[in-house]
What does this fold into?
Amino acid sequence: MTNNVNPPGPLAGVRVLDLTWVLAGPYAAMILCDLGAEVVKVERPPHGDVARTTGPFVNNESMYFQSVNRGKRSISIDLRSDDGRNLFLRLVDKADVVMENFTPGVMDKLGIGPDALLERNPRLVFASTSGFGQTGPLRNKPALDIIVQGMGGVMSITGYPDEPPARPGTSIGDICGGFYTAIGILAALRERDLSGMGQSVDISMLDCQISILENAVARYFSTGKEPGPLGTRHPSATPFQAFPTADGWMVVALSWGVDNQWELFCAELGLPELVGDPRFDTSFKRTENHAELEPLLFEATRRQTTNHWVTTLEQYNIPIGPLNTIGQAVQQEQIAAREMITTVHHPVAGDVTMAASPLKLSRTPGRVYGYAPLFGQDTCAVLEEWLGITAEQTAALAESGVVLTEGGPDIGAYLSA
It folds into this structure.
């Protein structure tokens, strides 16, 4: 079974050869796929993307893999063989984008680096995502999400003071790399519309972590002081954090420049005396004297339920919401109204529920076009559609080990080992 090809979308007609694996690169390719690009995942024989071996599993199919590879097609080519490389180069002639996230230099060693491919196809966009980029003293250093989070300073400002460093609950090192890779590809495609020329896109996951530090960098360079972890608090606005309630937690963020919100907040909490307290009469002072203020607010918010506080404080347009679990988050009425949860049918795993695309364009919105492919399921179809290679010829290539049309990791054996 083959997933949809060239579905209507803003990137319909854009052909992408996706050599990426695990998370950062596949996430970027998924964004392009959600926007209608034909994304062909080029997987290494015999097992393909290692994410296929990452749980949780349903009928031995990885739901992790499903979450970032939906809608793509899968072919398997042995790029280490001359015949495999030549076959890949023919596909490059028909492609708009090539994506990879290997250690810098690997693609060059295979003879399919950016210089070689751009010489062959001058309109190609060649996107590389790596831990540290294609230049600099650390270019060859291996990296995973937590490494760039640590080296990028993010973990030093995450968690609570006087506690061990904390990792954010999602893989923002990889995800931010994926975001910027997709943005870089879209920018290069737009520039190609003007110049007629392709180019390479070099994304460093560490660079991306530095780019999202926002006011932490501003505070460091303007004050010379090292920012530290603040729990859920904001460094320059108070109240702006999570508060305990009688049955859980809520999050409150008083807006800058709205003077009466503090007065209304204190009144509803039964703490009107705080309004006239000179320690707390501005957001700056409340932040400066937070250690004295927080226990007073916590004692008050614990007296009522989350729903009580949300319902009450929303009447005054005070920004507030429940601190939801994942289960609560995905079941919100607002999420349903925005169609942010979708279900696709997988031929082995059955119905798979996942997050949908948040890209709500008025005419050509992002959408999930299908399930994440089985290993090599589209090898025959892609070679025929792109290159005119017949099923018989593909069978001969498979017989010689140049391509695979099925296979992948034996998850049953993997789980029982």
The CA atoms of residues 296 and 360 lie 42 Å apart. The chain has a mean pLDDT of 95. The two ends are 30 Å apart (CA to CA).
